[in-house]
Specification:
343 residues; two-stranded antiparallel sheet; 15 helices; 80% helix; 2 strands
Length: 343
């Protein structure tokens, strides 16, 4: 296989990992107003991702760096055209990270509620805008012969992209609530299961609309991998429905696992809908960026391939070890004891 095509799928793998891992972080953050009945409950929710949220976030940094090195033309067009949207994602991610670190620095209720609101905003905005960005990449945006984006921020807020953003928002929310149910006990655990039932039904409806729309677009564009898009979309739909069934039967592990499978297969469906392009021009197909005309030289890709072969397994092993170490449930009783000792 040509190295450029290999790196197209490696970049896709990195974004899949990011959406699965930081996706449930976003969902946990967005669930605070619905599940945190008191400060102990909110601390219990936040502590489920406390040891891993920053590690999960590094996936997007690695994905961006690989995009820059492997596909500089794609990187340049994407980051210049989507600058305001990506800047807003970056600022809200910073806001969320600061809130996690500063929330517990003072005991005042007003102080904590302020940072809780910033956690919600810092989770919801990226969850929505990532869907908008990916949907626009697949659906197409105005690109001229010099591979420069000629639209505006409003261009990105088209109906298909907005449905894509709403899909990722709801999908990440439900995925995060599954994780809360998996990692907590007591009232928070019970409330998370109930919330997942309600949000899951809405997620199924919106995701179905988006996936069907994506399939129709792929057929209309004559995508060479259109049947892979159909198959992956069907698997994503079955996995999402299966996660709802598992949640209803109090099988939190299965619900979370099937939620992750939903995100994996849905993102892969979008990736195959994009193939062999990396960014579609809506004004003239001839201006589209493809895997071949957007990639770096073979020499660069060869060096990157050796680096990935050496370091990627190490990163995956370290992340797996981290999750294993922090695999236990976050107990409300333990937080109450720690709070009593502190006072």
């Amino acid at each position: 296989m040509d190295l450029a095509y290999l790196w197209f799928f490696i970049v896709g793998f990195l974004f899949v990992g990011y959406f699965v891992l930081d996706g449930f972080d976003f969902g946990v953050g967005m669930s605070l107003p619905f599940l945190g009945k008191d400060d102990i409950g909110r601390r219990q929710i936040i502590n489920t991702i406390g040891p891993v949220w920053d590690l999960n976030e590094t996936w997007v940094i690695v994905a961006g760096a690989c995009l820059f090195a492997a596909f500089p033309e794609w990187y340049a067009t994407l980051f210049s055209g989507f600058y305001l949207a990506l800047l807003l994602i970056l600022l809200t991610l910073i806001l969320r990270g600061v809130s996690f670190e500063y929330r517990h620095q003072r005991d005042g209720l007003r102080w904590k509620k302020g940072f809780d609101r910033m956690i919600v905003i810092g989770s919801a905005v990226p969850a929505f805008l990532w869907g908008v960005a990916v949907a626009n990449i697949v659906h197409g945006v105005p690109i001229d012969a010099d591979h420069e984006f000629t639209g505006s921020l409003l261009t990105l807020l088209n109906p298909y992209a907005l449905v894509g953003g709403l899909t990722t928002l709801l999908l990440f929310f439900t995925h995060g609530v599954y994780f809360v149910a998996l990692k907590t006990d007591g009232q928070v655990h019970d409330d998370a299961r109930k919330l997942a039932r309600r949000s899951g039904i809405l997620t199924v409806v919106v995701a179905a609309v988006f996936l069907v729309w994506t399939i129709l677009n792929a057929f209309e564009a004559g995508a060479p991998a259109v049947w892979a898009v159909v198959l992956l979309s069907a698997v994503a739909a079955l996995a999402l429905i299966g996660s709802l069934v598992a949640n209803a039967r109090d099988r939190e592990g299965w619900a979370f696992g099937l939620g992750a499978a939903t995100i994996v297969t849905a993102v892969l469906a979008l990736w195959f809908a994009l193939f062999p392009n990396v960014m579609v021009s809506s004004t003239d197909v001839a201006n589209s960026l493809t895997i071949e005309n957007a990639s770096s030289t073979d020499y660069t890709l060869t060096i990157m391939s050796w680096a990935a072969l050496i370091f990627l397994p190490l990163v995956l092993a370290y992340q797996a070890w981290t999750y294993w170490i922090f695999r236990k449930r976050v107990s409300r009783t333990r937080i109450e004891r720690a709070a009593a000792v502190a006072h």
